[in-house]
Specification:
Protein name: Sigma 54-interacting transcriptional regulator
CATH class of the largest domain: Alpha Beta
Organism: Dorea amylophila
Pfam families: EIIA-man, FaeA, PRD, Sigma54_activat
InterPro entries: AAA+_ATPase, FaeA, P-loop_NTPase, PRD, PRD_sf, PTS_EIIA_man-typ, PTS_EIIA_man-typ_sf, Sigma_54_int
Number of helices: 35
CATH topology of the largest domain: Rossmann fold
Helix content: 40-55%
Low-confidence stretches: 65-84, 346-350, 356-365, 407-411
Bound molecules: adenosine-5'-triphosphate
Radius of gyration: 34 Å
Distance between the termini: 53 Å
Mean pLDDT: 80
Largest sheet: 5 strands, parallel
Oligomer: single chain
Keywords: ATP-binding, DNA-binding, Nucleotide-binding, Transcription, Transcription regulation, Transferase
């Protein structure tokens, strides 16, 4: 649900007389006060809220809106809160999820003046084409687009596939004598459907001639009966087509062109888990109603239905369920029909129940989570997920609370089932990494899982995020992945990926991996390494070790590939320790070291005692130097130490403000550097300083330059300060790639954008800073090109900050305080020209955001740019 709508629903349900303030909404929803105020004002403009006159301003529900909302609610109690308009389409499962766009198109086609628009529904057999067609007709009646008793005539063209003349007569009618046996005149289906809908299923069976006749009818509403070459008939018929075939290869282009709306319904297995759940459930529910029995299905059977891979899609699932229930009905006499997996009749695994009299409660319970994942926007930055998680969890809790009161949802089996699974597996798995979650945290975890699984609107595209620091999250990702393996049964990849992403961020907040240096245990045997690693992790209470088991059948080469895949994804700047059990593994050094940024230590003949000793040191934040000083004599082991920051020429990026910025600078640098030849490493600032102080030139002999955001001097290695770069100071330590002037300019520009992005992001309330920055970049280029100037860096930063916030200000119609002081009358020729040029430069922004930028705003910009463009 959109945040604004969430707020409205909350006020509608919870606040009675005195209303809410922006402050109270901000606290309840965990958002900023000005954002809350913006939403409240929008709701006021829409007439949904009224504004009081006292300070602080109170917003409340106007009395008549409240009444209408109540009435609407009473009419349909299955309505999810977010739904603005109720129609017959709500029977079509997925109508507010994967089918939302499809339904919107259907409504648009029905409502198009004067006679609607022709539509074709494409999709495999049994996906719901005929059902949708019948709902379109019902919607047209409901919305008054056709008369109450308007006909809905259906013809399956496949029935006449081999006899186009007969099909023609069925459609258009015939006159007496039109063909042998035509003893009297007969009206066709077009006449029968006059004033309503004609639905032609399997339309690809229409012959070319019949397609031509039909498109003539679409164009003119006229047709001729078979055998009549003189008279035209007229009818006012809305046409709907459906096909399982590719319309481009089966229908004439001229015919296709007459069909403005083409919609596609996906296969059953392409639907989200939540939608499949609803479909299967609704079919069992129907049977419970028809047979007047409670139905109880074991979970395995239920899952089978959810994953049924049949050509007939939803239709096949529905018939299978019908047959199943019919068989149970004829064989069982009890009040409750039991449907169990053959051979598992006595199993006491959990069951799903469909209770006849409780239908409505049940349906609305599954709509609790409708749209809930909508607060995570695809493409959002990883760092933002944490913020949104809070809102997400609050919303889940609130919706559950609301529904608990009304529906006693807790009794619903699948919720209980997932809760049990989470309770049983989370701590068992985390234990082997040295952690455990408390009851409340497990509660949060399972609620997030069910909210995503049962959000029937969560569908389709993979959830991509930006700014992902893989190395930072790698270990949390491993833990979550193992938990999800244990908890999820049927899911599609996108659901899993989404859960994996948000839960990884969530877990990184709940447990903290303390040891900074990564350590791997590699041992021969099925489980030797994993048992040792989990024992050590558990005793140390930290995820120090990752295990790599090497059963007899696995070759060292294969293990090396696995280890390297892992090592590439983790932080190795500070070093890596490998504990191995014997010879062949010990010699892995040269195969792995190329992926290790820091020093590498290999210890052979590993024992649990040593793993614990080392693990506690790592947990205690020992650096690699201290590790190399450990007394090995008591363990009867050998340690090999390989020094090296990077084996290749490298550039080090280090920022005092944290790794996030360093990673982003690294990303920019990698566009200009050949990363096959040069490594770009990020390094903790204090660690870098320590190493520079301690180390000799030898340690950094492969380092070309160190990039920092804070001045840092070193005699050992060239240092390039980002601030100097922004200010345009040339520096002899520019790496070679930057000797090219154009490169330096582009690179500097990217860096400026990065820094301004942070600044802009903290100023913007609604707009996506990354998108706005791109747009402002175009604006700056526009001015540079027009005035043939190159704006100095400080001015560019100023413009980025000013212009992006100006766009948002104009969008929400807030005036800048400075605007008052701008005199738009009596301005000189140059500024008039500037306004004209600016209008052109801002044209696409104005079109995109549908805003009008005032002359006063341009004059403000003029003041900023004046000194440069007057030169
Ligand atoms: N979204 C849905 N919500 C609820 N029921 C559905 C939905 N989609 C399909 N069904 C049910 O599935 C069954 C099969 O649908 P339908 O007959 O409309 O499929 P079809 O695509 O027209 O199949 P065919 O191409 O074989 O004619 C119907 O009984 C319908 O009620």
């Amino acid at each position: 649900m959109e945040a604004k709508e969430e707020i409205y629903q909350y006020i509608r349900k919870n606040i009675k007389e005195d209303g809410v303030t922006a402050q109270s909404i901000a606290e309840i929803f965990g958002i900023k006060r000005n954002v809350a105020s913006h939403y409240l004002n929008l709701l006021e403009k829409e007439g949904k809220l009224q504004k009081g006159t006292n300070r602080p301003v109170h917003f409340s529900i106007p009395t008549d809106t409240e009444k209408k909302a109540e009435e609407c609610n009473n009419m349909i109690d299955e309505r999810p809160a977010a739904q603005k308009e109720v129609s017959v389409f709500s029977k079509f499962i997925g109508y507010n999820g994967s089918m939302e766009q499809v339904i919107e198109k259907c409504k648009a086609a029905v409502n198009y003046p004067v006679n609607g628009l022709t539509m074709i529904i494409c999709g495999a057999s049994g996906v719901g084409k005929s059902y949708l067609a019948s709902l379109i007709h019902q919607y047209a009646v409901e919305s008054g687009a056709v008369e109450k008793n308007a006909p809905f005539v259906v013809l399956n063209c496949a029935d006449y596939a081999n006899n186009s003349e007969l099909l023609s007569s069925v459609l258009f009618g015939h006159v007496k004598g039109a063909f042998t046996g035509a003893n009297e005149e007969k009206q066709g289906l077009l006449a029968e459907a006059d004033g309503g809908y004609l639905f032609l299923d399997e339309v690809h069976n229409l012959s070319a001639e019949n397609q031509e006749k039909l498109f003539l009818f679409i164009d003119s509403q006229k047709y001729r009966m078979l055998g009549d070459s003189k008279n035209w008939q007229t009818a006012k018929v809305r046409l709907l087509f459906a096909t399982t075939e590719d319309i481009h290869s089966t229908l004439l282009a001229t015919f296709r062109r007459r069909i403005p709306f083409e919609i596609r319904i996906p296969d059953f297995l392409e639907r989200s888990y939540g939608e499949r759940f609803l479909l299967v459930s609704s079919f069992f529910q129907n049977e419970a109603e028809i047979l007047k029995k409670n139905i109880c299905v074991d979970s395995e059977y239920f899952r089978r239905m959810l994953n049924l891979h049949e050509e007939g899609n939803i239709g096949a699932v529905k018939s299978k369920i019908k047959v199943l229930c019919a068989q149970a009905y004829s064989q069982q006499r009890e009040e409750e029909l039991r449907i169990t997996t053959p051979g598992k009749e006595s199993s006491d695994s959990f069951h799903f129940y469909w209770n006849r009299p409780e239908k409505k409660k049940w349906m609305s319970s599954y709509q609790i989570f409708s749209n809930i994942t909508g607060c995570f926007v695809p493409g959002m930055n990883y760092s933002k997920i944490e913020e949104v998680l809070d809102l997400f969890l609050q919303t889940i809790t609130r919706r559950l609370e609301e529904n608990k009161k009304e529906n006693n949802f807790c009794e619903i089996p699948p919720f209980r089932h997932y809760e049990e699974k989470c309770r049983n597996s989370i701590n068992k798995i985390l234990k082997s990494y040295g952690y455990r979650l408390n009851e409340l945290e497990i509660d949060e975890f399972y609620k997030m899982v069910i909210a995503v699984l049962f959000d029937e609107t969560f569908f389709g595209a993979a959830f991509k995020i930006s700014g992902y620091e893989k190395k930072k999250y790698r270990k949390y990702e491993v833990m979550i992945s193992r938990i999800l393996d244990a908890v999820l049964e049927d899911y599609n990849d996108n659901v899993r990926e989404f859960l994996q992403t948000i839960l990884t961020v969530w877990l990184s907040d709940k447990v903290k991996v303390k040891s900074k240096i990564n350590a791997l245990i590699l041992m021969h045997g099925e489980h030797s390494a994993s048992s040792m690693a989990s024992l050590a992790n558990e005793m140390i209470g930290d995820y120090v070790y990752e295990a790599f088991d090497m059963p007899i059948q696995v070759h060292t080469e294969d293990l090396i590939v696995k280890v390297n895949d892992y090592v590439r994804d983790i932080e190795t700047n500070e070093g890596l320790v490998l504990l191995v059990d014997m010879g062949s593994l010990e010699r892995m050094y040269d195969k792995i070291s190329c992926n290790v940024d820091g020093d590498l230590v290999i210890v052979n003949n590993v024992s649990t005692a040593f793993a614990l000793e080392l693990g506690f040191s790592l947990f205690d934040k020992a650096d690699i130097y201290r590790i190399t000083q450990m007394d090995m004599s008591q363990f009867n082991m050998k340690m090999q130490y390989y020094k090296g920051l990077s084996q290749k020429p490298n550039i080090i990026v280090s920022c005092i403000s944290g790794e996030g910025i360093a990673v982003e600078i690294k990303e920019i640098l990698s566009r200009y550097v050949n990363t096959d030849e040069i490594d770009i490493l990020t390094m903790d600032y204090s660690e870098l300083k320590k190493q520079l102080n301690r180390g000799s030139a030898e340690d950094f002999h492969n380092t070309i330059v160190v990039f920092t955001t804070t001045p840092l001097s070193s005699t050992v290695v060239p240092v390039m300060n980002v601030e100097d770069l922004v200010n345009g100071f040339t520096n002899p330590s520019f790496p070679e790639f930057m000797l090219n002037k154009e490169n330096v300019r582009e690179f500097t520009n990217d860096i400026i954008k990065l820094f301004t992005l942070k600044g802009v992001a903290s100023r913007l309330r609604f707009l996506n800073p990354e998108v706005v920055m791109q747009e402002v970049d175009q604006v700056i280029r526009g001015y540079e090109n027009y005035y043939h100037v190159q704006l100095p860096n400080f001015l560019r930063i100023n413009l980025f900050l000013h212009t992006s916030t100006m766009i948002e200000r104009v969008l929400v119609k807030e005036e800048s305080g400075k605007i008052d002081s701008i005199d738009t009358e009596g301005i000189n020729e140059e500024s008039r020209k500037f306004i004209e040029v600016s209008k052109d430069i801002f044209k696409s922004i104005m079109m995109k955001y549908k805003i009008e930028i005032s002359d006063a705003e341009y004059l403000l910009l003029y003041q900023i740019l004046q000194s440069v463009i007057q030169k």
